[in-house]
Design goal:
mainly alpha; 5% strand; 46% helix
Length: 166
């Protein structure tokens, strides 16, 4: 799902190209998914991604998403082969990657708009690592997990575990 920007934004940026190529909005969505993958992959060490929909519009992630989306679209549909290559299309990706790297390195803050008159900085993960949650976090096996010939049987194991939990 493309939360940072949408196909309508891309249509506004390049209306003549999209109309001339007769491309529908839903055909543009795949390029947004590609952009989201790049963004989420790059920012996952610093932020909890994908960003919540309640945080959008969010800058500069939205700008990066628009550039990445436009690059993915233009490169695949318009300038895919060498004779048709265009520096301005390739520069979209370079600029987006540079900005994305600055965000990932913490040089640029991510801003979410609270309403039309105020905004706030989106918080980073405290330890720059993803917290994994598991329903088996405190799992204590009741059977010995060693090979059968090395197993020791403790007939009071369940009672010992119950006492340890109290």
């Amino acid at each position: 799902m493309n939360c940072a920007t949408d196909a309508g934004d891309i249509m506004k940026l390049y209306p003549m190209i999209i109309q001339t190529a007769n491309i529908q909005l839903d055909a543009l969505e795949i390029y947004g998914d590609m952009a989201d993958g790049d963004i989420n992959g790059k920012l996952s060490r610093r932020y909890a991604v994908p960003f919540a929909a309640s945080l959008y519009p969010i800058e500069p992630v939205r700008t990066v998403a628009r550039k990445k989306w436009a690059y993915n679209f233009l490169r695949s549909r318009i300038t895919q082969e060498d004779p048709s290559r265009s520096d301005w299309v390739d520069n979209l990706n370079k600029e987006a990657d540079a900005m994305l790297q600055d965000i990932a390195d913490g040089k640029v803050d991510v801003i979410a708009l609270a309403n039309t008159t105020s905004a706030y900085v989106v918080g980073q993960k405290a330890d720059n690592r993803t917290t994994f949650w598991s329903s088996t976090k405190d799992y204590k096996p009741t059977a010995d997990l060693r090979p059968a010939e090395e197993q020791r049987i403790d007939p009071d194991r369940l009672d010992d575990m119950a006492d340890a939990d109290d």
